[in-house]
């Protein structure tokens, strides 16, 4: 395969010889010069004088006394002019992004030498000017008539009024803006181009000869520049094309213009090619072409290893790798592609920008900005936990602060939703991080200082060759300079910006990859392929909407006016992309084109129009294939943990009270075993548990805990002078809403906010609602107790235990059973064991057996209460009435919390004396404990899928 640049190098050397020192070779972009230089050097076995290589932008820059303006500075200067001309109070944040749009329009107008006075004149004047169509060709004349046909000046609407009022000012803004920039000695690119062509003196050019290689669509400035140099005898032109889309369509019946060749044909007429047409009939040469449809974007990237193995396997030497290219029409695929390139590809060169938004530097800047804006409450002087956590968890903070990890754990443990800055300043670096900042300038200074600290990490890194290390250094530099640039504009020019604008600027920033372009497989975007040819080519995301890009660029200048004044339109862009597509495939030998068939969001799941067009026009056989993910349905295997000697030993060690006197089997542990044996193993044998986390949400368990503590505080006060609970005390308390709310607030402080008693908690809306609901439940409890009073409070949140001995294969094993009883009260000869319930539905067990039989409707709360009742039967002589007090159902005067038993549709018997059930309960309890220690009974998964819904070990179990 002979590439275009190879042909140019050969022809140029044959015409000029060894001394190219007075020659400048001009390319549309930089990359081509590196490949060209290699081809030129290969033309001679002796040293030769190298030509100068420039791209077109650099050439105009070198010929202009003006310097290219920094994009941020250009927008800010335009904003000043806009404010002066329109007297608008619009903030810079709102103006910034449509200011960029306006500069883009001015740039296009200047590059196409538009008479701005006529374009931006008053629309009525413009209509009058257009009556004299001398300066328009027929197509432009039709376009301007079309505009005024659609845009009636006389019929005004509010939207039209806004457009006209701004349009009438654009001419003044344009002139004033250019004047200001000239005084500053800076320019946007189009202004610089226009200035160069207006002041151009071909006799004073630096080089004797300018060779223009591989251009396509030319704006008016470039066309005039080429003509001036051609007239001066200083220009040579090399155009790259193929007769397939230039001459051959004209020979068809009827003849037509192929959009890929539209601009090349114009250029060939104006500036004849140095190479003969016979060198450009290569698209009809034999090719292997495949169109492949993929079900997703990522599936295309995952296909790369297979493509490398099948298509490129013969080109394994490094010298051939550069003949292979992966072209991304959707540049968001860069990361999946990089991760999919197989190890047999030794060298890769990436000719694309890497998004700053996908680097740790951006995530750190973003976390710090959120910390100082939405993450800090000025009214209370506190940070929000989530914002502080994002900073503390970031790898940069972890590397720069030895105390960050411990601080994060402490905040989680204490449930600190709104920590004070003083709580977070545990070392010098964290003091810098958690110092509140006020205003954008202060935040920019704060960010630059912290990024300087981060730079220390990379200075200490030894592995400088690591590609990611280099990339992150570059991203750090890019982020730092952008923030610094904004800071200088705020401080020196008095500009006012919000952090949202900074964030949007950072998001839009790309970092260049540094590599050796002439080595390795090329990964590039469509624009970077100009002038380059590859033997093996794969294009990804060749969808309609990706190539050509969907929709026209936004502009203030309506389409018909752009067309009338010869500015860039969507047709220009479509023709340019058609040329890029056909030019790229014309010399390739193995061509694989992939597109995504999924229709989601903006993607319609259609192949690009260029693929469809090529399918119709192509002289080659095109193989059509589709990608399909290999289906390997994996059934999750049942998990069964055998009670090996090691497992049993761990169980003995954990619960044998001779080794651990405080160890006990709680009702929760036994309920867990009955619900799911595997969950019991994970939690109580293996010792696994869900990590702590801070949540502003109050789940049902935490809601119950806060209620329990509130009730305990109430009865602590009521029993301060004796255990008797009297009706008058309850009535007095029920009338005191403030006091009741104070109990709830105290419980919230202790169980939820974890703040000192003297500190006022910060409730959010949902927490406040929960607080009021708990207070109402507390009143309901007191009203219920008012019906039962007088009674004697025997204990609250009281821990009870009992030692049992069970028979195991290793002999008798002493175990503790027990837990914490919410409340015990007595009246007459009855002791009630009361368990508060703030949710759920009361259940009625048929028998004691049902409590020990795993099932969906097993009444586990009743099992817990009966266990406590069994323990207390042996500790005192009163009759025991186990009770479940469902607060949210206790409003009726006849409500009794005493548990009832009985079969469905049969009379229910209240359990007023647990002694009748105690023996059977203990017998079954002993059998259950023996089963837990039985080596023949493995730990298995539950059959009831409902038990898995909220299980902490759901992902581990995969049931």
Automatic annotation (TrEMBL):
Q: Which Pfam families match?
A: PDDEXK_1
List each copy of the PD-(D/E)XK endonuclease-like domain by range.
665-958
Enumerate the InterPro entries for this protein: P-loop_NTPase, PDDEXK-like_dom_sf, PDDEXK_AddAB-type, Restrct_endonuc-II-like
**Regions that span the bilayer:** none
- State the name under which the record lists this protein: PD-(D/E)XK nuclease family protein
Coiled-coil segments on the chain, per record:
none
């Amino acid at each position: 395969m002979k590439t275009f640049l190879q042909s140019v190098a050969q022809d140029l050397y044959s015409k000029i010889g060894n001394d190219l020192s007075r020659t400048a070779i001009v390319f549309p972009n930089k990359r081509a010069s590196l490949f060209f230089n290699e081809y030129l050097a290969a033309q001679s076995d002796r040293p030769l004088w190298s030509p100068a290589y420039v791209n077109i932008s650099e050439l105009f820059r070198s010929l202009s006394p003006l310097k290219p303006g920094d994009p941020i500075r250009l927008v800010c200067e335009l904003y000043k002019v806009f404010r002066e001309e329109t007297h608008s109070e619009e903030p810079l944040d709102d103006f910034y992004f449509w200011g960029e749009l306006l500069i883009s329009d001015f740039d296009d107008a200047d590059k196409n030498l538009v008479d701005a006075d006529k374009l931006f004149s008053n629309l009525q004047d413009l209509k009058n000017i257009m009556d004299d169509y001398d300066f328009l060709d027929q197509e432009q004349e039709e376009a301007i008539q079309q505009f005024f046909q659609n845009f009636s000046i006389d019929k005004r609407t509010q939207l039209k009024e806004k457009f006209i009022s701004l349009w009438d000012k654009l001419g003044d803004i344009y002139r004033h803006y250019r004047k200001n920039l000239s005084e500053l000695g800076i320019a946007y690119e189009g202004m610089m181009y226009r200035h160069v062509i207006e002041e151009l003196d071909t006799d004073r050019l630096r080089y004797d000869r300018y060779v223009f290689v591989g251009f396509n669509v030319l704006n008016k400035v470039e066309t005039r520049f080429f003509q001036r140099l051609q007239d001066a005898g200083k220009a040579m032109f090399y155009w790259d094309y193929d007769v397939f889309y230039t001459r051959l369509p004209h020979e068809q019946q009827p003849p037509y213009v192929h959009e890929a060749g539209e601009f090349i044909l114009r250029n060939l007429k104006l500036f004849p090619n140095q190479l003969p047409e016979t060198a450009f009939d290569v698209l009809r040469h034999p090719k292997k072409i495949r169109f492949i449809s993929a079900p997703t974007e990522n599936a295309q990237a995952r296909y790369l290893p297979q493509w490398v193995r099948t298509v490129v396997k013969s080109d394994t030497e490094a010298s051939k790798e550069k003949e292979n290219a992966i072209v991304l029409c959707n540049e968001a695929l860069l990361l999946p592609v990089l991760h999919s390139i197989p190890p047999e590809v030794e060298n890769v060169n990436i000719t694309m920008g890497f998004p700053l938004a996908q680097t740790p530097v951006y995530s750190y800047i973003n976390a710090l900005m959120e910390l100082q804006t939405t993450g800090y409450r000025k009214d209370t002087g506190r940070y929000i936990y989530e914002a502080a956590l994002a900073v503390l968890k970031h790898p940069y903070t972890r590397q720069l602060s030895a105390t960050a990890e411990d601080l994060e754990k402490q905040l989680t443990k204490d449930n600190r939703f709104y920590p004070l800055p003083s709580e977070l300043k545990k070392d010098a670096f964290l003091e810098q991080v958690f110092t509140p900042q006020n205003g954008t300038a202060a935040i920019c200074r704060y960010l630059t200082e912290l990024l300087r600290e981060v730079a220390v990490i990379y200075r200490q890194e030894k592995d400088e060759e690591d590609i990611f290390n280099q990339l992150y250094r570059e991203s750090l530099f890019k982020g730092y300079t952008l923030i610094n640039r904004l800071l200088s504009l705020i401080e020196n020019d008095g500009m006012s910006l919000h952090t949202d604008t900074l964030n949007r600027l950072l998001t839009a920033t790309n970092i260049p990859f540094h590599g050796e372009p002439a080595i390795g497989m090329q990964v590039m975007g469509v624009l970077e392929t100009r002038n380059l040819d590859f033997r093996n080519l794969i294009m990804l995301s060749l969808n309609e909407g990706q190539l050509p890009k969907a929709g026209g660029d936004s502009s203030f200048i309506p389409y018909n006016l752009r067309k009338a004044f010869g500015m860039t339109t969507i047709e220009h862009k479509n023709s340019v992309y058609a040329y890029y597509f056909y030019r790229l495939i014309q010399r390739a030998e193995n061509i694989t084109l992939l597109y995504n068939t999924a229709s989601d969001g903006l993607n319609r799941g259609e192949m690009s129009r260029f693929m469809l067009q090529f399918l119709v026009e192509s002289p080659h056989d095109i193989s059509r294939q589709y990608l399909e993910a290999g289906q390997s349905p994996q059934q999750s295997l049942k998990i069964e943990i055998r009670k090996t000697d090691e497992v049993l030993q761990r169980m003995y060690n954990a619960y044998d009270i001779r080794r651990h006197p405080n160890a006990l089997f709680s009702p929760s542990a036994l309920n867990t075993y009955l619900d799911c044996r595997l969950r019991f193993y994970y939690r109580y044998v293996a010792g696994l548990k869900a990590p702590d986390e801070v949540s502003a949400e109050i789940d049902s368990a935490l809601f119950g805990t806060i209620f329990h503590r509130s009730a305990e505080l109430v009865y602590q006060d009521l029993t301060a002078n004796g255990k008797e609970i009297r009706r008058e005390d309850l009535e007095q308390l029920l009338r005191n809403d403030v006091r009741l709310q104070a109990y709830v607030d105290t419980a919230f402080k202790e169980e939820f906010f974890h703040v000192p008693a003297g500190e006022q908690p910060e409730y959010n809306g949902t927490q406040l609602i929960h607080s009021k609901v708990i207070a109402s439940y507390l009143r309901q409890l007191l009203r219920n107790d008012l019906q039962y009073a007088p009674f004697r409070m025997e204990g609250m949140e009281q821990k009870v235990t009992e030692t049992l001995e069970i028979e195991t294969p290793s002999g008798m094993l002493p175990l503790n059973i027990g837990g914490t009883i919410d409340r015990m009260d007595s009246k007459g000869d009855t002791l009630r064991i009361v368990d508060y319930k703030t949710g759920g539905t009361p259940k009625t067990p048929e028998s004691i057996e049902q409590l020990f039989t795993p099932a969906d409707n097993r009444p586990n709360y009743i099992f817990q209460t009966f266990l406590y009742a069994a323990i207390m039967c042996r500790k005192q002589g009163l009759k025991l009435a186990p009770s479940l007090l469902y607060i949210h159902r206790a409003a009726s005067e006849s409500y009794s919390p005493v548990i009832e038993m009985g079969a469905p549709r049969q009379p229910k018997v209240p359990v007023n004396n647990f002694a009748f059930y105690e023996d059977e309960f203990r017998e079954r309890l002993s059998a259950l404990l023996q089963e837990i220690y039985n080596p023949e009974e493995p730990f298995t998964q539950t059959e009831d899928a409902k038990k898995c819904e909220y299980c902490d070990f759901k992902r581990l179990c995969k049931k």
